[in-house]
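Entry — protein

Goal — fold tokens:
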Amino acid sequence: MTADNQSETTRFAIGLLRGAAGALIFGIPMLMTMELWFLGFYMPRERLLLLLVVNFPVLVLLARRIGFEHTFTWSEAARDAIVAYALGILTSAVILTLLGIVMEDQPLREWVGKIALQAVPASIGALLGRSQLGGQQDDDEKQEPAEEASTSYSGELFMMAVGALFLNLNIAPTEEIIAISYKMTHWHSMATIVISILLMHAFVYAAQFRGTHTLAGNAPAWHALVRFTLPGYIVTSLISVYVLWTFGRLDDTSLTQAMMSMIVLNFPGAVGAASARLVL
């Protein structure tokens, strides 16, 4: 084995360790959430399958930016996505077994459902591990041209969608979302929408945090709000509706109540969407 091949193998192995750590760090809150245990048992299997299918292209696109090693082709990104899924499945299976959530006397259907559901956020966490646990060399790689495509307009919206999806997967299964949506008045909902948008805008643009989108010097003040923040909130809303539907939170509910649930979930979703662009 040449020195270059050995170096690549070493970097990939380090990436796997970071991925496993990321799956644990980002997945533990969901792995220890009771509602997700129950959902893995009784949620419709076609919705669970759709979530698993949707998650794979998300992982591929995410791997193009923060794979286990710097990726240059779609096949390499797909490889990293498969590895991230495998780490998510393995991590979820080990932790759920350790906690006694999956046991020998349970049917196979329950095992598969619980582990598969938890593997989705854990696999995203596995890829996030490289971004958050990387060293100086990884930071230098982010300066290469591959990043430029990921931070285009569509790239900005995609990263917002990933952040909203990850945080929504953590919060949407809880009963608190439904309870809050029933307690809120229309005035509360309007205030929540406004605050969510303002937080999103302040996080990403007004505060000028690391990794935020910078505007051209001659761009009007409202440009970022109209071009990025408001579309980002719409993306967050779509993610919220999808996640709520996946977990059965919109079944047998009126349109008004579904909208209220979406608005409630949009609040943490907007924070996740804005934060994703800061840390990825």
About this structure: Residues 48 and 92 are 16 Å apart (CA to CA). The first helix runs from residue 3 to 31.
